[in-house]
Structure formats: C-alpha cells, structure tokens
Amino acid sequence: MKNLRTIWVAAGMLLLGNAYAQQNTDAGYKRTLREVLATIETQYGVRIKYADSLVAGKWVTYADWRFRNDVEATLDNVLAPLDLKVKKEKDKLYKLSVYEYYRWTVADGWAELDRLAAQYHNREEWEQRKSVLQPCLLEALQLQPLPAAPKSQPIVTAERKFNGYTVRNIAIEILPGVYINGSLYKPAKYKGKIPVILNPDGHWEKQRYRPDCQYRCAALARMGAMAFSYDLFAWGESLLQFAQEDHRRSLAMSVQVLGSIRILDYLLQLKDADTARVAITGGSGAGSHTVLMAAIDNRIKVSAPVVSLSSYFYGGCPCESGMPIHSCGNRTDNVEIAAMTAPRPQLVVSDGKDWTDKMPEHDFPYLQKIYGYYQQSGQVENVHLPAEGHDFGINKRTAVYRFMAKHLGLQLNAIQDAAGNIDESTLTIEKEQALYVFGDKGEQLPANAIHGFAQLEKIWNTK
User: Fold this and answer.
1) Pairwise CA distance, residues 296 & 140, whole Å
2) In this structure, which of 139, 177, 204, 223 has its CB flanked by the most CB atoms within 10 Å?
3) Whole-structure pTM over 0.85, yes or no?
4) How far apart, in whole angstroms, are the C-alpha atoms of residue 21 and residue 29?
5) If phi over 0 gives left and psi between -120 and 50 gives alpha, with beta otherwise, what is residue 315?
6) How far apart, in whole angstroms, are the C-alpha atoms of residue 455 and residue 155?
7) DSSP result, 191-209
8) Could you give all domains of the chain from N- to C-terminal order, each with its CATH number?
9) Which residues of the chain fall short of a pLDDT of 70?
10) How far is Cα 273 from Cα 253, in angstroms, rounded to an integer?
11) How far apart are CA 108 and CA 412, in angstroms?
12) What pLDDT, on the 0 to 100 scale, is given for residue 22?
C-alpha cells in the first residue's frame, strides 16, 4: 500500500510538473482556447456560447498575461489575435464568432468618416478628392478598362400584360457565356421617352421573385418608368451557371458592377429610354451596389439606397466589400462613396434595427455638408424609420415611390387611392417560374453558357 501511494504521488507531481513546464516563455505560456474560455467563465462569472469548430485546435499564447480586470478587455486580448470576437447577447452571456472585418463599432466608424471629412472643406477640394476616388474604384474592381462586350443580342421573352403595365424577361450576355437575367416592367400606355430605373436584387430569400420586388417594379412602371429587376451574381437564374457559394467570392462584386453597366448599355439604347432620367434603387446588399453604381457611372442621375448605408458597416458579403475599393484614396468608406453622387438627387432610407440605425445622427449630416458644397443640400434626403427593421417593406417602398416621382417626373397618383395613400392591391404577383428567361428547369440556357467559377476566372483573367 505504501508503494502504491508513492507511485500516485509521483505521478501527480509529474503531471503538475508538466503543466507548469508549459507555462513559461519557452512554451509561450500557451493554453488551449477552450481552456482559456473556461477560465474566463469561472473568473468573471459569465457564460460564453460557441460552436466546437470555432475553438478546435486553437491555442492562446501568453494566455494568462492577457487577463485584465474587465471581462470584455480580456476577451478582446484573447480573441483578437485569433480573428475571433464575441457579441454580448445579454448580461453575462456572450456568443463567440469570427472576426467581421466589415463591422466596426459606431465610434470607430464615425471617427473614420470624420478623418475623411477633414481632408476637404469646399467644393474644389471635394472635387479633387472625388477625382482620385472614381478611377480608383474601377481599377480596384478590375474594370479599368471595361472588357469588350459580347456581340450577341439580348434574349427577350414574350410580353405579359397586366393592369397598367407590361413585363418581359430579358437575359443579357455580359461576358462570353456569362448571362445576367431580369424582368423589364413598362407602362401599358405611354408616349415618347420614359425614365429608366435599375432595381438590383438584395440578399433576401427568393431573390427578385419576392413580392416586394414585383410590387416595386410594377408600381414604378405604372407610374410611367421602365423598371428593370435583375439577379445579382450566383443568385436567381445565375445559379444555372454558378454555385450559390460563388456569390460570396470577391469577384462577384466586379461581375455585378459589370452586369449593371451592361444592363444600362442595353436599356439606354432603346428608342423609348430617356437618358436624362436614369435612376437606381436597391435594398441591403443591392443598396451597397446602388451606392457604388451611382458613384462610378455618371449616367445614373437619381439613386435610392435602402437599409444599407452606414459608416460603421462596409457590407457583410464579399459581393459588397470583397474587392479592395475601400483602400482607394488612402482608405474610404461607403458614406464617402455615397457622397460622390452629389449633387445628383439621392434618397437614403434607414431603419432602427440594423447598421443604419444612427443615420440621422452623424452620417446624413455629413452627406448634407457635401451636397452643401454645391448649394444643393435639399437634393439629398433621409427617410428614417426607427421602429422598423431590415427589409424593403411598404414604408420603404413608399419613400422610394415619392422620391422617384419627385425627381423623375412620374405620376404618383397612378398608385394612390382616393385618400392619397399608396395602393399596391391591383398589382399582380406572378409565380417565380413566370419570371424565368431560360425555362422552368433551365432547359433554354444558351449552348455557349459557361458552368462553374473556374471557367469564369479563366475568361476574366484573359479579358
């Protein structure tokens, strides 16, 4: 028995020795992340939720040296080197996630916008800044110069007639074998030239087939414009050519911009298109796209980004921030890019439950200041809906309808009831398949259509 006790004591001392042997500078005071998180939970009386995949195989060097009196300072010290972060869900409860390069604190975002704003104080200085940013944005997107456009004609389906408007589906070849698809809504009756409004789709379920997309484009058509609703890259019918995960590749950002440029090329050569009245509006990721397109394409005269613009959020998808546009001019942000639209009319729609929640407090006054350099402060507007969230609901659409009517000369009363309220009840929501260009199962996809991201990269790199 004495010998057995001696063995256990010796084994215990060996284990203890091994543990302490790791806690020195030779071993970098290294501990597993799982162990460090458990210590933090015990020491500070908190709970940290995480998926095993986020901590498996990860180590924290100089672990004990990263502890501070404050739990959040400690968590930051521990997690930042691993590109991880926590979000506080409620008192004493945190959730671990990967580092989000595109999401800044409000204070940091505002400070960055203030740094940018300090570089110019009048119209001349601002124009100099813009002259640096605009070509750089195109270069960062690898669209300077633009690739040659294919010679093919757009594929256009038969016209469908509804109450006060018509719809045709259209596919445009933007690169050899690469198509962008959408639906063109037009007034049922009109004379002469009419405004053109681009409606890129955002990151919501059902893509451009959603009721809110159809309502918006049908309403704008009834008001007197041609409205084109279209897929983002690897979204909607683009999935016939690419995998869904390809949407989250950096090149998606460039392909989407090229797609919008090609769409404008097509629409503005139509005999009934008024090239002096061209607009764009989109929500969420398509709101970021709206801001970028209005900044780089001077053909766009009116813009309305919805639930997207913020100085402390750069776009959570690589299709919004995957290419290095924000490195231009020794760093820029989306609000400064939006300011490049000045003095052209711009409506910013924001809400109280996402990253646009503080738009009226800081970012919008900055935009007014830039527009003020042109004595056009009234040309930029903000409709803030503090009780609403991240969607393109009726109140957001109403704001867009009124703004477009005001600046494009559209007939708002075409979608109003007797009391002057917006009435979308007579607009038709079509089934998803009715909006397809290439058939219910993609059976009409052109023979030259490429398949897969590798083929796209090959074409892109030899353009």
Assistant:
1) 12
2) 223
3) yes
4) 9
5) left
6) 22
7) -S-EEEEEEE--SSTTGGG
8) 2-98 (3.55.50.30), 124-457 (3.40.50.1820)
9) 1-22
10) 27
11) 41
12) 57
